[in-house]
């Protein structure tokens, strides 16, 4: 079987076409420089490609999409280059098992198997039976080392990884595809629909949540207006290490997420939005104010960038598309705390909230209508803890704002995702109360 091999700077799955085709020589140069490029494998006369491979060594990433004769994607494979330059980890894969030629690509009723693997041997296999009966089945895959890793081929020596899927018994004969058009001299920006290496979750315009007059929507309420942040109090962090955590989780040696800050006392506040809605119970239009985020304000300097805080075992090279890390909670609760006094502060939190000890020194329940609920303080160190409510259980990313000089300006937790900004217009009236 003859397989045509073509190269391009990107692949657009919407148009089913490579974006800016390039020669094999230019692809080789991009490979050596770590720049992204794609390889498209086609059988002559077949509209859909057999597979498309995206390479971006600067992102430690190689991706693979496999197509069937109907042009539906049947398999995604995410490979990662880690510390050993000679091999690649089969980091993540998804297989779709269409029940017939008439089933649409990614149909909700299509059975699916996902494999999530890590270099330390951990992994999870999830089989989703989306047809009649539904449900999912999760197991820990027992794989050999050669099933978790593949050798890294040299440029131009990659096999057709989907050969078995396509029923090829004999090795295919590769022929260079004709380059239909020359690529532009500069990379430029590929269309948003083009395939790109996966990125972890992005922060969104967090600064705007604290800027009165900005109009946003959460998808449920069509228009909400940011009002003045509500100052709740202050937090002392004499150790210079801030912990952001769920106080209800068994932490072992301590919290996963910590952020170095200058030792000091910092303002705690809430971002809030005001909106109106029709209240069925009252049968009237009601205006209310709700929080969107909690913040420890380190500096009045606006953040130039925001980044997701990582735990000690988090490796960005392993992140799949839109992956988050942060603190976990099983009680819809998070906290800001002085990490240097973590154990005594958590002990006071548990004694005051869980055991309900009366007149406990070092514990205070907060009842000011804010998201913040409890405060504890350690007399020996001067460190403090302030707990706050989230809108549910799960994992919450911790966003660290930095100035142009790289200094921490604030630490933010979004209590219910990032609202979407609406086009700027006349600013709605805002609440200036603190």
Shape: elongated
Q: What is Rg?
A: 26 Å
Task: Give the tally of β-strands.
Answer: 28
Structural class per helix/strand content? mainly beta
Q: Tell me about the biggest sheet?
A: 12 strands, mixed
Provide the helix percentage.
under 10%
Strand content: 35-45%
Q: Could you report the average pLDDT, rounded to the nearest whole number?
A: 91
**Domains (count):** 2
The number of helices is: 3
Question: In oligomeric terms, what are we looking at?
Answer: single chain
Low-confidence stretches: 426-434
Head-to-tail CA distance between termini: 73 Å
Detailed description of the structure:
With 434 residues, this protein is mainly β. It folds into 2 domains: 2-176, no CATH class; 206-421, no CATH class. The chain is built from 3 helices and 28 strands. Strands 1, 2, 3, 4, 5, 6, 7, 8, 9, 10, 11 and 12 form a 12-stranded mixed beta sheet that branches. Strands 19-26-27-18-17-14-13-28 form an 8-stranded antiparallel beta sheet, with no helix packed on it. Strand 13 (215-217) and strand 14 form a beta hairpin. The longest helix is centred in the last third of the chain and has 13 residues, at 342-354. The protein is elongated. The N and C termini lie far apart (73 Å).
